[in-house]
């Protein structure tokens, strides 16, 4: 039975809402209880065909809108998110599990992202290139690529989708959005409030269904000119292969396994406290969450004790309950994965310094967990946990710590804690990652670039670079003389 505080999940194509009539459905579960709160309909082949066609037809008109007109619509959209933040956030907590204050922060952050994009979208400039001949004029213009397919994850179901939608629409593209089946409510809110804000029909389309079927069908459609994906490395590589096969532009924001270097001149207590809050945000289901904690030998014991104390004080529970600091994992598969990683650590000589077990008999709760390992042999040091587990290991000197931090093929986020400016600068230069944060957590703001290197993907969201993936560059050379 559908929860009264939870929206009916529908498809949205060409300005029309379509329910489950004649379509396969799957359950949406509340991760705090494991109970069904809604059903989500799967798009059929004809639905995907229509979405591509109406998005292409809408693009022909939307690309002609001036940046000011596009900005006005998107500003209204941001305002609607803010004025409806309570209901949107509650639905996010119901389907994604995160504590209500975190869900509210996600809604507010999403509105901030929209505001920034609409302002920056008014500054998509071309340029004039001085010509070698007096009668020649040389001009560079930026043009929207066309219909964009956005595939977004469940861990930040609103903000991850808003990043893509805001950039695409502000640049003059139209969008087909395939949101997360595990946490679909906020993706519904995007379509609903964009429609209310006055976005022309067909500019945003929302589809659900089997991820492999939806992506392979739409990437092959001639109308779709770009794919933007946030998710796992494995799926991202497959989608990049499909995009390459059809010569479609792609932005890939893939997984990470963020190293943290805690040097011996850092404040062990303060660093442990700061890392606890950031590690356990959204139950650790954050692609930029610190996961591999490399701590210099001389402060290892002090840091480990402080971290274990901080982890032990975290209040775990239903995200709607007052005082909850960490909610459940999003689905049962995440709990199973936590159990696998902890069991492997035990079998390979690591010590479980905190947690290490599921909580309760209902819902998908797992205790905040610390694994203290003497080396990198355990699976947890290779596989991104995407959950509330921190792997702690001591290192000897700068070279040892840096080599281990860079040992994996991932390169999304990394963190450094030190009171030495020289160490900080050297570490920032040598870490192989798209983002480095020193002595704080300063990533993922609207005005800053967000993206990784190596297996963590390519392309950037946020910052002035955010529009690069949505624009074609056209060079125009014009002879202004009397003719050939």
Largest sheet features: 7 strands, mixed
What is the CATH superfamily label of the largest domain? Aldehyde Dehydrogenase, Chain A, domain 1
Radius of gyration: 24 Å
Strand content: 15-25%
CATH class of the largest domain: Alpha Beta
Number of domains: 2
Q: Which fold name fills CATH's third level, the topology of the largest domain? A: Aldehyde Dehydrogenase, Chain A, domain 1
**Unreliable segments of 5+ consecutive residues:** none
How much is the average pLDDT? 96
CATH architecture of the largest domain: 3-Layer(aba) Sandwich
Helix content: 25-40%
* Number of H- or I-type helical stretches: 13
**How many β-strand stretches?**
22
What structural category characterises the helix and strand content?
alpha/beta
Broad shape: globular
Strand order of the largest sheet: 14-17-18-13-12-19-20
Cα(first) to Cα(last) distance is 74 Å
């Amino acid at each position: 039975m559908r929860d009264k505080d939870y929206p009916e999940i529908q498809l949205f194509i060409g300005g029309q809402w379509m329910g489950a009539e004649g379509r396969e459905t799957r359950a949406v579960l509340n991760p705090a209880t494991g109970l069904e709160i809604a059903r989500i309909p799967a798009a059929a082949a004809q639905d995907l065909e229509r979405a591509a066609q109406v998005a292409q037809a809408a693009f022909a008109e939307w690309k002609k809108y001036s940046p000011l007109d596009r900005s006005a619509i998107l500003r209204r959209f941001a305002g609607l998110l803010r004025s409806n933040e309570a209901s949107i956030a509650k639905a996010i907590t119901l389907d994604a599990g995160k504590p209500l204050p975190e869900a509210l922060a996600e809604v507010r952050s999403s509105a901030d992202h929209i505001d920034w994009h609409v302002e920056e979208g008014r500054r998509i400039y071309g340029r004039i290139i001085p010509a070698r001949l007096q009668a020649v004029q040389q001009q560079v213009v930026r043009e929207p690529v066309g219909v964009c397919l956005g595939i977004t994850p469940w861990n930040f179901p609103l903000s991850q989708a808003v990043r893509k939608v805001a950039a695409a629409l502000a640049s003059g593209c139209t969008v087909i959005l395939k949101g997360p089946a595990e946490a679909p409510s906020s993706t519904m809110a995007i379509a609903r409030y964009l429609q209310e804000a006055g976005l022309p029909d067909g500019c945003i389309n929302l589809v659900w269904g089997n991820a492999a079927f939806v992506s392979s069908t739409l990437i092959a459609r001639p109308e779709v000119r770009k794919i933007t994906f946030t998710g796992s490395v494995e799926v991202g590589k497959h989608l990049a292969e499909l995009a390459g096969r059809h010569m479609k532009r792609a932005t890939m924001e893939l997984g990470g396994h963020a190293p943290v270097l805690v040097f011996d001149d850092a404040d062990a207590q303060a660093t442990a406290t700061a890392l606890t809050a950031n590690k356990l945000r959204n139950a650790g289901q954050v692609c930029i969450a610190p996961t591999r904690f490399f701590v210099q030998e001389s402060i290892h014991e002090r840091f480990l004790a402080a971290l274990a104390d901080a982890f032990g004080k975290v209040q775990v529970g239903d995200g709607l309950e007052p005082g909850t600091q960490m909610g459940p994992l999003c689905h049962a598969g995440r709990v199973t994965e936590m159990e696998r990683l902890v069991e492997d650590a035990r079998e390979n000589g690591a010590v479980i310094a905190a947690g290490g077990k599921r909580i309760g008999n209902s819902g998908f709760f797992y205790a905040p967990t610390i694994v203290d390992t003497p080396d990198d042999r355990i699976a947890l040091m290779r596989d991104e946990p995407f959950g509330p587990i921190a792997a702690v290991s001591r290192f000897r000197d700068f070279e040892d710590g840096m080599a281990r931090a860079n040992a994996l093929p991932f390169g999304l986020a990394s963190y450094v804690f030190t009171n030495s400016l020289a160490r900080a600068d050297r570490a920032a230069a040598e870490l192989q990652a798209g983002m480095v944060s020193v002595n704080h957590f300063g990533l993922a703001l609207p005005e800053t670039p967000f993206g990784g290197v190596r297996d963590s993907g390519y392309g950037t969201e946020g910052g002035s670079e955010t529009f690069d993936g949505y624009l074609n560059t056209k060079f125009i050379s014009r002879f202004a003389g009397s003719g050939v």
